[in-house]
Design brief:
By secondary structure, this protein is of the alpha+beta class. Helix content is 27%, strand content 30%. β21, α14 and β22 form a beta-alpha-beta unit. The longest helix is centred in the first third of the chain and has 24 residues. The protein is globular and about 90 Å long. One of its GO terms (cellular component) is mitochondrial matrix.
Length: 585
């Protein structure tokens, strides 16, 4: 054979291989969802017939024999093709479904029809439906939900609304585009075709000031690290808007540009204002009438909130009034990217909000959770028997106390730098009523007694330091602050009379064994709304083993009242975050 013929033959072989590769990459896929904790599998694919296409979805039991699943699939395809028959075809009874051939192969060998679905459907297998061939893909990277938020502001990171399955975000492809026609160019062209300019790659994107007035497009190609799933394009429904300018929390960020030093850790406590309380007619018209309605909407507030919390570079984050949906859709995924693990504790009953504790994985590891339902503990624990009997003597007090849904969230963490150091982090949100100081006293006492029980559980595991954080709805002049910081409240304290004679409990004396102090001191206020302001939020620390290194300064009063009160277009909550850097002694 001459060298010319040899070269020609090699070229032809290469062309054939290229064609085969192209065919294999364009072969339609059949997706199989097969997860461990589900006793069923889901099979989905698109099938075309006579120019019409339909998606088929089968939900079959894992233990069912393959033959039965294929028989059901045959019946479904027959129904689809029968609908497309012409009258002549029906009379002649000629159609694909009469002689439909369906077979599943793995490594070019027919799969045993008696095998259960759990074993029959394998990654890389091939399903033949007459002349159509499908590649079987088990648990492909899948986009279940992907949306760009309804509020997009220049200078604020966009956090997508998403739900993925079998996807590694870090290995997936995200491409961001803006339309290259601004709003002012709308009459310039009669073409309906929108041109897009790529501006960034990555899961997160922060629009610039030059992009105000433009819309966004995101092209996502999900991946599990080895395979790519079906790509999806999503578009913003609104234009990029200008932000509110410099927010007061950004001035506080000047003190938290870096993470805490070795041997130290930064703590935040923050009531973030639950959406269930902010986005209602009552809140817009009565609670916060001075705040523009758009600034109370979650899509607006969450942009400020996430930027604020991220910028503090904390190691421990205690949040109150956390909506379940906000925890799942915003806080948990965003803070996970920032290196945090977190947990949510909802209030008792039907209340859709609660508290959250997040901790930086590089600083701490979780040893245990010891959450508390206060009312259940009060009624059932022997150590509160005498207290509960006293409460029951006053029906009005008993009714108010037992109607509370307050909880205490507790996490015990171990320092990654020094495993002998343990940190017990507790957070709560006490009853708010101004005439309920007597209720809050008992709530504080139950919390402190519970933390003493936690200390006993870990007494042989090294130094266990304590943080008690939260919105305690109590000023420094009241009994809760006195109980926590002085270890004792006697029967003559005026807070026992806060509910009137019908709630007054005689001979009430409460105490505990901790040495606690406020890490941030007692600011003039941590909550500032129309008609009220006061210091309600605290980071109480175990002064035997912890000390304050730095307290992040509060925003100035001028910043707080710039838009009358909180929340506002620059403050996402009616509370102000308390932040301190602490170290072990």
């Amino acid at each position: 054979m001459s060298w010319r013929k040899t070269v020609s033959l090699l070229i032809k072989r290469q062309q054939i291989k290229t064609i085969i590769r192209r065919q294999s990459t364009t072969m339609p896929c059949l997706h199989v969802r097969h997860v461990e904790n589900d006793d069923r599998i889901q099979i989905s694919f698109n099938f075309s017939h006579n120019g019409k296409e339909r998606q088929f979805n089968l939900n079959r039991h894992k233990s069912e024999e393959l033959s039965k699943s294929l028989e059901r699939l045959t019946q479904n395809i027959k129904k689809f093709t029968d609908k497309k028959k012409s009258k002549k075809q029906k009379l002649e009874n000629t159609d694909i479904s009469n002689n439909l051939t369906i077979k599943l192969l793995h490594n070019d060998i027919s799969v045993d029809q008696n095998w259960p679905n759990s074993e029959a459907w394998k990654n890389g297998s091939v399903l033949h439906i007459d002349d159509t061939t499908y590649t079987v893909t088990v648990n492909p990277p899948t986009i279940l939900k992907l949306e760009i938020p309804d509020s997009i502001m220049a200078g604020f990171t966009i956090y997508l609304k998403y739900e993925f399955e079998f996807v590694d975000i870090a290995k997936s492809s995200f491409e961001w585009f803006i339309d290259i026609k601004s709003e002012n160019d709308q009459g310039a062209s009669s073409s309906n075709v929108v041109e897009w300019k790529k501006v960034s790659d990555g899961f997160l994107y922060t629009p610039s000031l030059t992009e105000i007035g433009h819309k966004l497009k995101l092209k996502c190609k999900p991946s599990d690290g080895e395979r790519f799933g079906d790509a999806k394009d999503v578009y913003s429904t609104v234009n990029i808007e200008s932000g509110p300018g410099i927010c007061p929390f950004e001035n506080r960020h000047l003190y938290t540009k870096r993470q805490s030093d070795p041997g130290c850790f930064r703590v935040i406590t923050y009531n973030i204002l639950a959406d269930t309380y902010a986005d209602s007619d009552f809140s817009r018209e009565t609670l916060f009438p001075y705040c523009p309605p758009y600034a109370l909407a979650l899509d607006y507030r969450k942009q400020l909130l996430l930027k604020e919390v991220k910028g503090y570079n904390a190691d421990v984050i205690c949040l109150q009034e956390v909506d379940k949906k906000v925890f799942i859709n915003e806080l948990q995924p965003v803070l996970d990217i920032e290196g945090f693990d977190g947990m949510l504790k909802l209030k008792n009953g039907q209340v859709p909000e609660g508290s959250s504790i997040f901790y930086r994985r590089s600083k701490f590891r979780l040893l245990g959770k010891h959450d508390l339902n206060m009312v259940e503990e009060l009624k059932s624990s022997e150590k509160y028997q005498d207290l509960y009997e006293k409460i029951c003597q006053k029906e009005a007090y008993k009714e108010k106390m037992l109607d509370r849904n307050t909880t205490l969230q507790v996490a015990v963490l171990e320092s990654c730098e020094d495993p002998s150091r343990k940190l017990c982090v507790a957070t709560s949100h006490f009853f708010f009523h101004p005439k309920a100081c007597n209720i809050r006293l008992v709530q504080a006492y139950i919390c402190l007694q519970h933390l003493e029980s936690v200390r006993e559980l870990y007494k042989d595991q090294g130094t266990l330091s304590f943080l008690f954080c939260g919105d305690l709805n109590s000023a420094p002049t009241l009994g809760v602050y006195q109980l926590i910081t002085t270890k004792d409240v006697g029967p003559d304290h005026p807070d026992w009379s806060s509910g009137g004679e019908e709630e007054y409990l005689k001979d009430m004396e409460l105490s505990h064994k901790f040495n606690l102090k406020s890490a941030c001191g007692t600011p003039k206020y941590t909550n500032y709304v129309g008609g009220f302001n006061g210091c309600l939020d605290y980071i109480f620390m175990d002064s035997d083993s912890l000390e304050t290194v730095q307290v992040i300064p509060m925003p100035s009063h001028e910043e707080v009242i710039q838009h009358t009160a909180l929340p506002s277009v620059v403050f996402p909550s009616d509370h102000i975050a308390q932040i301190a850097d602490l170290t072990w002694k």
